[in-house]
């Protein structure tokens, strides 16, 4: 009886345990499900921002410091600039001017590199106008310019590869101005008193001195007539003058000089008055190491630049000759051109000699054809001893080996009739009542371009 009761109690307890366990399991399952659902909802609420943040990181990569710096700079047309103007005074140099305005010397060197084929910045004159344009955002020079004369400004503008040369040319008009006068005392004093410049008087004297002795032949009362070509802007002369014709009456005889279309002067019969130019600037011919070319790869920099002269390979110390009669207008020592000389020859001709080792003339000195003016060398930026020789006609570089140059000749028969008509027009103007006559339409940029040569 007792054992049955004990068995019954154990069985009952076991049933209760099973029932309680089942209930507990059900409750545990319900609680787990509820907690899991709640956790899912909470997690779902938190996931989107994380995913959105990840998406933003994928779509917008992190930028470098350089990219952020570039993005902070506005486009070119939105940059802010300010302009500076400066008038050169005695003692100034480009280096001192740049330092005075707190501009980097490295940018000056880049500008001089761009000016290498032209040498417009090599010599400054008191009164020259300089202009600077400064980029305020990048704190650097954006452009630099120099006013050469009222009709022309040269500019050096920043590009991706440094500074590049540019020029601004204002069209001009040409007029013929007639000067008439009588000789009292010397011809120089009489002509200067009538309004002719020193250069004009000197040109007339040089042209006519082979046939007229200005010291002995001229007498008081002899008279002269001169026609000068002058360039103007809005009716004002700009200092660019050229002799068109001149004649002097002395003791009943006429002495005249007339400019022909070839740039040389002749008498009224067509015989040349301009001393001949030598083809080569040395006594013997040397090998040409680099020819005249509008586009040549520079042997030092590797850049393509105009080469407006001819290079003659020769030993250092070779005598260099003036190729014609003229006046020395510039002597300088350039970091790229080295020691060099500029000479103005007769009429529209001028010459230049670069990379010299020694200069034997002075500025303003008059030289004769064949005179030794320097010794060749290897100064400046050069790959070896040589002479760089240039010839300019009306300010434009020409090939000195092939160009037509004065050779003490007469005007060809095919051109003599046109020349005689031109002489007649000049003589008619000389005796007319006119003082100023319009010559032509405004001069174009192309005809005014005055390029300067390379130095290599």
Automatic annotation (TrEMBL):
Residues 306-400 form the M23ase beta-sheet core domain. Keywords: Hydrolase, Membrane, Metal-binding, Metalloprotease, Protease, Transmembrane, Transmembrane helix, Zinc. InterPro entries: Cell_wall_metabolism_enzyme, Csd3_N2, Dup_hybrid_motif, LysM, LysM_Opacity-associatedA, M23ase_b-sheet_dom. The chain crosses the membrane at residues 12-33. Residues 85-162 form the Opacity-associated protein A LysM-like domain. Residues 177-294 form the Csd3-like second N-terminal domain. Its cofactor is Zn(2+). The keyword RNA-binding does not apply. It holds the Pfam family Csd3_N2. Signal peptide: none annotated. The keyword Transport does not apply. Gene3D superfamilies: 3.10.450.350, Glucose Permease (Domain IIA). PANTHER family: MUREIN DD-ENDOPEPTIDASE MEPM, PEPTIDASE-RELATED. This is Peptidoglycan DD-metalloendopeptidase family protein. It comes from Litoribrevibacter euphylliae.
